[in-house]
Structure formats: C-alpha cells, structure tokens
Specification:
By secondary structure, the chain is of the alpha/beta class. 43% of the residues lie in helices and 14% in strands. The chain contains 9 helices and 7 strands. A 5-stranded mixed sheet has the order 4-3-5-6-7, with helices on one face. The protein has a two-stranded antiparallel ribbon with strand order 1-2. Helix 6 (90-96) links the parallel strand 3 (79-86) and strand 4. Helix 1 (4-13) packs across helix 2.
C-alpha cells in the first residue's frame, strides 16, 4: 500500500488529459525522489495560475491578468481586416510559429459537439460577428481542427457569415492538415503549407 500523500498526488495528476494511472505514478514518484524544490516550484506556479491568466475580451486569447487586450490585437503591425478563427487559445501559438500570419485571431472556445453538450450559442460566434463590423474585416480564415466537430463548426460559420456578412471573404486552411490532429500538435511545415494554400469555402 502506497503512502496516502503519494496516492493523493497520483490521483491529482491522473485528472490531466492523456495521463493514465501508470504515467501519473511515474510523475508522482519523480517528484518525490528528486529535490523538494521542484515540487515547491510547481505548486507555487499552479497556485497563481488562475489569478494570473485571463481571456482577452476581444479575441478570447489568453493574456496576463493585468493586460487589457491581447498583443495579437493591439499590435499596430497586425492587420485587423483579417481574422483567423481557431477553436482553442493554444492553437494561436501553433499558427504563430509559422511566422507567416500577420492578421488577428478569434478563439471560439471549442467546437460544436452534441455529445459533450457544446452548442453553437456557447461559442464566441456573436462576438466574431461584432468584430467584423467594428474592424471592417475583409477576410475570415476558418482554422478549426479537421475533425467531425471542427468541420461541423466550420460549416456553421460559413453559413452564418454568408447570411450576415456576404461581402466578407471566407477561407479555410488547406487540406494539408491530416484528419484527427489538433492544430497545437501539427508541425510548422504543415501549418505553413496550409496557410499558404488556404481556399475559399
């Protein structure tokens, strides 16, 4: 029987996505057998995580708690007439690594998934429509993940944008992205090609 303090850490780590029981055990044992400073530093950073991070009120990207809006929005070098729409905040950083995109971003906050109880009204679609007017947007690049949920969300966005703003150009990342992969795990070459060869919906 393992000590309770160790099993508590294993249980806590097991809540992380992609971390099974064996992996959680290895992580917990690593933390125990190495310097207590590692555990203390980890605990310290986790304790301020929620207080130190918030969502940008315009783009819904992650920003420091004391910032007003995302640097991807208020940077004068950014082209506000182009918005690249992603599902989750971390997808932005995958695109940024290509160093080929200079527009702004909009985070939907997920994708339509009836199984998970995520409906269209829970996504930041209304805010996207407001931005089109506010920033005189000329192009929307839909960069949802190439999954069933991502494709469903892309189709909804296409339909909504055609109804509300038919003059706005709507494009989609090229099909160079393999099915089933999240943007945050795609390599830079694939993402670069997908941006370069984006097509009209």
């Amino acid at each position: 029987m393992l000590p309770k303090a160790l099993t508590d850490v294993i249980d806590a780590l097991g809540h992380l996505p992609g971390v099974g029981t064996r992996t959680a055990e290895r992580y917990a044992y690593y933390l125990f057998k190495n310097s207590p400073r590692i555990s203390l530093d980890l605990a310290a950073t986790l304790s301020v995580l929620h207080a130190g991070v918030k969502s940008c009120p315009v783009t819904f990207a992650l920003i420091d708690a004391d910032a007003e809006v995302s640097e991807f929005y208020n940077d004068p070098k950014r082209d506000k007439s182009t918005i690249l729409v992603v599902e989750e905040p971390l997808d932005i950083y995958a695109i940024e690594q290509t160093k080929q995109y200079t527009g702004t971003y909009h985070v939907l906050g997920g994708a339509i998934s009836p199984i998970d109880g995520i409906t269209a009204d829970q996504l930041h679609i209304k805010e996207l429509l407001n931005r089109i007017v506010q920033d005189n947007v000329q192009e929307i690049i839909v960069a949802t993940n190439p999954s069933v949920e991502g494709e469903s969300t892309a189709l909804l966005l296409q339909k909504t944008l055609q109804e509300k703003h038919p003059d706005v150009k709507v494009t989609r990342l090229a099909r160079g992205l393999p099915l089933g992969i999240d943007l945050s795990y795609a390599d830079q070459i694939t993402l670069s090609a997908a941006l370069e060869n984006r097509t009209k919906l």
